Amino acid sequence: MNFAGILAGGKGTRMGKTELPKQFLQLGEKPIIIHTVEQFLISNDVDKIIIAVPAQWISHTKNIIGKYYNNEKIAIIEGGSSRNETVMAICNYLNQNYKLNDDDVLVTHDAVRPFITQRIIKENVEYAKEYDAVDTVVPAFDTIVESTNNNTITNIPIRDYMYQGQTPQTFKVKELMKTYESLNDEEKKVLTDAAKIYVLKNKNVKLVMGESYNMKITTPYDLKLANLMIGNKVNDID
Amino acid sequence: MINQIIKLTQIQKFEMCFENIDIDTEYVIVRPTYLSICAADQRYYQGKRKKEILDKKLPLTLIHEAVGQVVYDPKNEFKKQEKVVLIPNTPIEDDDIIKENYLRTSLFRSSSSDGFMQSVVLMRRDRIIPIKEIEESLGSLIETVSVAINAIENFKQKSHKRRETIGIWGAGNVAYITSLMLKKYFPESKIIVTGRNNEKLSYFSFVDQTIPTNEFTENIKVDHAFECIGGTGSEFAIEEIIDHINPQGTINLLGVSEEPVRINTRMVLEKGLTILGNSRSGYDDFKKSIDILQDKQIQNYLHNIVSEVIEIKNTNDIYVAFDNDINNKFKTVMRWNI
């Protein structure tokens, strides 16, 4: 089976004065998370959707999802303390509720990237069968400057080799669990990105081209831009 | 959810646009899989329509020939992943006499409403039909077949029964498909095709005779004729048809012309000819087309006029498809993966 894990771990502490976590903010006529979930709901490549949210937002999530559809394809669970722990919470839920096979795939995606496309989902699922994992990226258009002392430049990598990570990131569920469990606590703390774990373990992570508009809505500016993109006047959302 | 829609915003300029759509409505959500480019789309893309038309219609989502897969039907009447053809004509009133594609109120995709170059399309459930055993990659050609069927059904109803020889003027997609369908409908008739492009004419192996324009001698006569040329060539073709058609024949027009075309009405009167206008198609024509195309041999003939299949992942690929299409002999098909 192919599962989608929607990572909705935001607690609403970074978005200006807004107290509602960003995944629940309105984009046009709907909360951002609804836009995101719907892309997976209509995907022929996804069989089940698991939405992971902080404990205090579970009821709220159930309420808003319930307003749009009563769909047995969707489950809502409690996420973990970090991104990776949230991914693991989804894996554990799958392990407890399904008889997992080695080639069962989990497409993990940020709830706050509602501009995800059907192509990106499809390619993630397809390549996850062929490679150890899949990461969605776009070429880096800006020069990347590295500064290990946060003061002066220590390196300027060749831009042609640089990409910016987006989501989805996709894994085979059983392999992901095994790989994560092989890390010690210190490694778990440092390795905040699941794809990075795979790279350090010498596994092949396939690149899938994302889209520049598959943006992450993190700041009030992002939300204004997203609303403009779908044709809503910015004045309406202030 | 946010749907991705590609719009032609100005001549030779496609832009990715986004639009909120609701998924739990009375509509069926279909993801296009194969789309083909029609001459009408090219006329918009290249700016060959009149300026006032372009000013009025752009931005516009192009393409009205498409097949797709059902991705979401709130009523579960269509199976998930069911392959369906998308009907571009959308009637908004019923009429017992006038066919849906001639009602002035009907909407038509990529003309009076947005076409199929979208990530997913909301379709009224009477505007999609399962294609059954038709190869999906040929699905986008069903629309052109249905246009031929509309014309042939009109012809069947309105022409006299002597159909010993039927002539087709033109060597393009519409001529090819119309000839193929005429042979299917009237296997006893002699089907002759005349056109300027000898190389294209050589594809028409299923007809009884192909005759290059310059070899179309005076003694050749037809009982009825189909004009499938359009543009400035229409006038010459209609003139030639009037010369070669037997009395009381029908001239079935399928070619679209941007400019008015002169017709020798004196000879139309003298010969008692009937001129039938044909445009677009409706649900019944699609239904008949799908039934006919279950025949694998006919599918094989259609394969022969798919000049190129181009995978579309982004707007750049669409430019390639439209630009290549200009030099392709027959159909350019886009495998849709936006």
Quick description:
In chain A, α3 (83-97) packs across α5 (173-181). With 238 residues, chain A is α/β, with parallel strands linked by helices. Helix content of chain A is 36%, strand content 21%.
Describe the structure.
The complex is a heterodimer of chains A (238) and B (338). Chain A is built from nine helices and nine strands. Chain A is of the alpha/beta class and 238 residues long. In chain A, strand 2 and strand 3 form a beta hairpin. The longest helix of chain A is centred in the middle third of the chain and has 15 residues. Chain B has two domains: 161 residues, Quinone Oxidoreductase, Chain A, domain 1 (Alpha-Beta Complex); 132 residues, 3-Layer(aba) Sandwich (Rossmann fold). Chain B contains ten helices and 17 strands. The longest helix of chain B has 17 residues. The two termini of chain B are 15 Å apart. At the A-B interface, helix 1 and helix 4 of A face strand 2 and strand 4 of B.
Annotation keywords:
heterodimer; A: alpha/beta; seven-stranded mixed beta sheet; 9 strands; B: 338 residues; alpha/beta; Rossmann fold; 2 domains; six-stranded parallel beta sheet; 17 strands
**Poorly predicted residue ranges of chain A:** none
Assign a percent range to the helix content of chain B. 25-40%
How many helices of chain A in DSSP terms? Answer: 9
Q: Outline of chain B, from the CA principal axes?
A: globular
| Sheet of most strands of chain B | 7 strands, mixed
CATH architecture heading of chain A: Alpha-Beta Complex
Helix-strand pattern of chain A: EEEHEHEHEHEEHHHEHH
Q: Which two chains share the most extensive interface?
A: A-B, 27 and 22 residues
The SS-based structural class of chain B is alpha/beta
Oligomeric composition of the shown chains? heterodimer
Q: Please tell me the overall pLDDT of chain B.
A: 96
